[in-house]
Write a structure and sequence with these properties.
It is built from five helices and four strands, in the order αααβαββαβ. It has about 160 residues and is an alpha+beta fold. It folds into two domains: about 45 residues, Arc Repressor Mutant, subunit A (Orthogonal Bundle), CATH 1.10.10; about 70 residues, Alpha-Beta Plaits (2-Layer Sandwich). The longest helix has 15 residues. Keywords: Lyase. Belongs to the Ahb/Nir family. This is siroheme decarboxylase.
């Protein structure tokens, strides 16, 4: 999906910044754009299928809920990246996992009910994957929201 229609861009803007918290959110999105609910759902499904949309869901501030969260980095041999990513991604508290061009080439975030539990998970990951993991908990959070305004002139 290289070219997005104006309608798809409008749908993306609503999904990111103004998702209706109602019993029929897609009907409400459709109504706000003078569309049929089935058309909105079909367009969203097409954007999911193309990979443009990976997930639709809420993002909770784990710290305000009493959870412990940390950014982690590890050194993974190039030939083991897929294997190690699979091991890390099996953990239910892992929310992001990225490859970086750095000595520590795999970075992920981990959220757990407590610091002790997070450290147990990291120790288990180190043992299961046979890698070194560095934990870097945030000292201060500066930004927790990202939204991409989809105007007509934006290139994808």
């Amino acid at each position: 999906m290289n070219e997005l229609s104006r309608t798809d861009r409008e749908i993306l803007n609503i999904l990111q910044a103004d998702f209706p918290l109602t019993t029929s959110p897609y009907r409400d999105v459709a109504k706000s754009l003078n569309l049929d609910e089935d058309e909105v759902i079909a367009r969203i499904q097409a954007m999911k299928k193309s990979g443009l949309i990976r997930r639709i869901g809420g993002i909770m501030d784990a710290r305000s809920l009493g959870f412990y969260s940390t950014l982690c980095a590890c050194k993974v041999p190039e030939q083991r990246i897929d294997e190690v990513a699979g091991i890390i991604n099996q953990q239910k508290g892992v929310t992001h996992n990225y490859i970086r061009d750095h000595e520590y080439n795999m970075w992920f975030t981990l959220t757990a009910p407590s610091q002790d539990e997070a450290m147990q998970i990291l120790k288990s990951l180190q043992n299961d994957a046979g890698i070194e993991v560095i934990s870097m908990p945030a000292k201060q959070v500066y930004k927790i929201k990202v939204s991409f305004e989809m105007s007509e002139t934006d290139a994808l």
